[in-house]
# Entry
Amino acid sequence: MKQPRRGSYFFRYSPVRWFAWGALALVSVVLLSSLAYWLMGRYLYHRPDWTFQDCLFMVVITLTTIGYGDWLGLKGLWVAQLYTMALAVMGVGVPAFVITNLTAVIVDGVFGNVLRRQHMNRDINKLSGHIIVCGLGATGLHCLRELIRSRTPCVGIDRDPQAIKEAAAELANLLYVEGAADVDDVLWQAGVERATGLIACLSDDKENVFVTLSARALNPRLRIVSKVQDPVAKAKLRAAGANLVVDPAGIGGLRMVSEMIHPGVVSFLDSMTHDAERTHRFEDLRVMPGAAVAERTLDQANLRQHANALVVAIRPVGAHHFHYNPNAETRLAPGDTVVFLGETTEVAKLRPLFSGPLPAPSVDDGSRC
# Structure
């Protein structure tokens, strides 16, 4: 996979980072210049009274323009005089650079924000298998709320600092990246190469197309779900690499009709998705080759023994339709998708059965009492 170009990010202005580099440069200049004075005094002028401490003091008062005078007595020593002039002219820029960035850190109040950003970057770098939400508007906030409620790791992206501030104020410990979501560097900061999914919910269809193209190029395995405003743009989003295109207006119309015709069902679904204490969801698991439940019937798999989750439907491998309310004799083949209704923590208990062999049961030989 093609690696990102890091140059632009490295040279992006960051007061804390530039202050750290300036401080390192200042320490280096001070120590090396003091060493140069000491070597000149020892080997060129044979001045044993030029101690390293005196040389260090000379460098400091020169760079800071304090002006205590000729501390080492350089009159008539033209090499040392030329070196002092060069140090005063060129070296004085280093402390000025440090003071400028230190002022930016303190006066502009960015110290806490930069530290928080660095800590957040470390947390994002630890993520794997997370979901990236591009656009923190109304739709993006709904997506983030649901992901956090279902305990799914996620990262938000938005170029508007105010939108990020409002989202972070509402959603505690929200991980986010500030920048344009269609820029490769921003997607890399969000961990696109380690993510399993991306939701493009920007307000403009063109931006969603660009985000989809960029994300698909950076991670071909990524599952991309995009919002669309104009139905004409659906084909373009699919061509750009979106796995699924969602029309919020169409879904809103269906919801309004459902509220009118089937209010009880809608009330049930709302109660399930908005329960603050329990997170009941419809979730799906795919039967992997060699899994513990592969080639077993639902009766033989006995899933309820492992987790309190209800099997709602099964889609056989290669099929386009689900079989709802499967009976106990339904056989689970590798590649089948099983839909469950249950708490996310309960469904999580079933993942090992669908992805790997069933652990061998412990055998009590009677040696324990």
In short: The radius of gyration is 32 Å. Confidence is low (pLDDT under 50) at residues 1-10, 358-369.
